Amino acid sequence: MSNSQNDTTAVASAASLTIGGLFCHQARYHPRRVALQDADGEYTYGEVNERVNRLANWLAERGLRRGERVAVLSENRIEYLEAMLAAAKLGAIVAAQNWRLAAGELEHCIRLTEPRIMLVSERHTPVLADVNHTVPTVLRFGEDYESALAGASIAEPTNAAQGEDGLLILYTSGTTGLPKGALISHRAEIARGQTFYIDHEIEREDAFVAWAPLFHMVSTDLSLAALCRGSKVIVQDGYDPDALAAVVGRERIGWLVLMPGMIESFIEAMGRGGIQPSSVKSCGCMADLVPLHQIAEVTRLLDAPYVNSFGSTETGSGPATAGLIAPGTVAKNLSKVQSS
């Protein structure tokens, strides 16, 4: 076979990769490695894959097919990521609903994507009750969800997805009007996550803390990228400075997401607990919205550069970024030219 034929075969093989297939690979070869962690415990790749299979088969039994949508309305929890992976195996699409929206806006988002099935947490069930939706099947996380999984097959479902199939719908309001749904394919999601990991030299042993909402690109992109690489995702129910500081003190972290407005309280939590960071490769985002002295203080504390990020829901973060601010540096230029 010629080099050109080899190159064509390699490109075709890479283009056919899917999120479900990559996760299955990790579960098959590293079943005892920790995949997910929350306040209640840790779950291995093998354990998570079994639950994902059960959910995928339950969804399929209720008629969910390739290209159809399953909506999720929930705070951050392990079941949210299970839903993403289950849909990925079926070639179905998760429409991640923003629980911060008013009932009318939420109704618009649900009707826009016409989901066949809705997964909702107990916390947000009352919100859904106020929405005039037409979703035929609604499953609530908790006892109902666990009962559904217990009665479903553990068999590996047929991976119906292809690389260019839709994987996620993340909503973005842009500049005007009601939220729009940005459809992200398997191939795009793989590229988004892996590009960030490569740029920031994040390794398999580096965990990702998913505290930012899973309806947002930050937690979604990096969580799925981590699970495709065999890394650990630590799921937290929103921002809790003390809980986040505790994780930083005991875990090896790749990119620590720190949003503008939370950095001061995070620094205080680290000091209050007398916590020394274990290992952080990089931290922060949107440097132009953060006081320069806070960037210098938090990077010095973590001994990690600050990410002067640039990206969008539709595209993810740009590749080949040079937008890093060195630890302890009071930046004089926050241009995003190198990050775009």
From TrEMBL:
PROSITE patterns: AMP_BINDING. It comes from the Bacteria. Residues 25-318 form the AMP-dependent synthetase/ligase domain. InterPro entries: AMP-binding_CS (IPR020845), AMP-dep_synth/lig_dom (IPR000873), ANL_N_sf (IPR042099), ATP-dep_AMP-bd_enzyme (IPR050237). It holds the Pfam family AMP-binding. This is AMP-binding enzyme. SUPFAM superfamilies: Acetyl-CoA synthetase-like.
